[in-house]
Amino acid sequence: MERPLRLAARRAPVATGEGGAAFRLLLAAGMGALVAACASVDAPSGGVTVSEQRQAVPASLADTRWRLLEFQSMDDNTGTRRPADPSLYTLRLNADGSASLRLDCNHATGSWSAEPAADARSGRFEFGMLAVTQALCTQPGMDGMIAAQSAYVRGYLLKDGNLYLSLMADGGIFAWEPDSADSGAAGDYVSPDEGGPRHWEVTGQTGLMAQPSHRAQVILTYLSGTILSNLGCQAIDGEFWCDVQAFGGGPRGYVAADAIRPAVSPDGSVATGPDDSAYRAGQEHFDATGQVPCAWHRGQSMTRCDYGVARSGGGFATVVVGRPDGTRRAIFFSRGQATGADTSQADGYPAFSADTESGLHLIGVGNERYEIPDAVIWGD
C-alpha cells in the first residue's frame, strides 16, 4: 500500500488541467508501472468516512447511477471540460450510503451523505473518504481531477433529470446524466447458466483484480475491446464484480462490472445462456450435416469426411467429424473461432492448432487435418 495522498482542507481550489496533471505525476512517482495500489482522499472536516455509521440518504438519490457530462469551472482559463468517452466516468450512489465511481481506468469507493432542502430537489451533498486506485491510464483524462475535487463537493441540484454537484467556494460544478447502463443491474450481471452473456467486452482500460475489490492485487491490465469469458458475477458492498478470464486463455480474476458490457459476436448478436452445442452434438441433434475435407496421416492427400454441426448462436458450435476407424472427432468453436477438440489420454492428447484462410478454418489435431468452411459454423 502506498503512502496515503492527503488533500488540504482549507478552501476549494479551482480545478484546472494543471491540477489534474500534477495529481497524475504524483501517481506516476508512487506507481512506476501499471500497478493499482490504493490512495486515500480525505474529505475536509465534517465528511463521513466509510467506516462510520451510514446516514439516511434522500430517496431521490439513493440507488442511482450517473454518467459524467462535463465539469464547469468558474475559472475562465479552464472553462468547461468534457470527457472524451462519458461511459468511462460513472457514479453510483447506493442506498446504504456507499458510493463507487469509475474514473477512466481507475475506480474509487467510499461514502456519500446528503440533506435535502425544502424543495427536495437540492441540498447539501458530501463525499466521505474515497479510496482511489492509481493505475496510469493509456490517455490522460479527467480521473485525477475528479478524484481530487470530490473532497470539495458541498451541494447538489436535480434539474431536468440531471444531477449537478457543486464545489465549495464556487469552485465549479460537475454535471451528470442518468446512466442507462444501470437498468436491470442485478439481472444484467449473471452467469450464462442464469441467462447472462457468454462473454464480456472491456469498455476501457481496467485492471484484473485477484479479489473482488479495488484494493486487491492487480494481476494485469486489460485494454479496451478485450473479450472476457463470463464466469459469473456477484454484488459486494453495492457494486457488482465479475469473475472472468480472457477469451483464449489467461489468468482468472475479477473486474468491476461497470468496466465491461455484453460482448457482441461477429454476426452482430449477443450470445446469452449456456452453450449447449456440445451436448446436442453428443445427442446427434445436428443443425446441419454434410462433408468436409479431411486427412488422417502426415502427408496424406485430403479426402472427404462426413460431419454434423450443432450450433448455439453467436458463432458457438460443435462440429463432429466421422473418422475411417468409426470413431469421431469433435471440434469446438466460440465466437466463430476454433478453440479446441475432444483430445484424450487414449489418443495421447495430440496438439491442437487452428488457422483461417479465405473463409476456411484449417484445423490440426496431431496428424489429423480438417478444412471447415465458415458456413458450417454460422449457417447459411
How is this structure best described in words?
The chain has 380 residues and is mainly β. It has 3 domains: 17-182, Lipocalin (Beta Barrel), CATH 2.40.128; 185-262, SH3 Domains (SH3 type barrels, Roll), CATH 2.30.30; 277-378, no CATH class. Helix content is 10%, strand content 42%. The protein is built from 5 helices and 26 strands. The protein has an 8-stranded antiparallel β-barrel. An 8-stranded antiparallel beta sheet has the order 23-22-21-20-19-26-25-24. It is elongated.
Topology overview:
Elements: H1 17-31, E1 38-41, E2 64-73, E3 80-81, E4 89-93, E5 98-103, E6 106-116, E7 122-127, E8 130-133, H2 143-149, E9 153-159, E10 162-167, E11 172-178, H3 185-188, E12 199-202, E13 206-209, E14 218-222, E15 227-236, E16 239-246, E17 252-256, E18 260-262, H4 277-282, E19 288-295, E20 303-311, E21 317-322, E22 328-334, E23 337-341, E24 352-357, E25 360-365, E26 368-373, H5 374-378
Helix pairs in contact: 1-2
Domain DUF306: 59-143
Protein name: DUF306 domain-containing protein
InterPro entries: DUF306_Meta_HslJ (IPR005184), HslJ-like_sf (IPR038670)
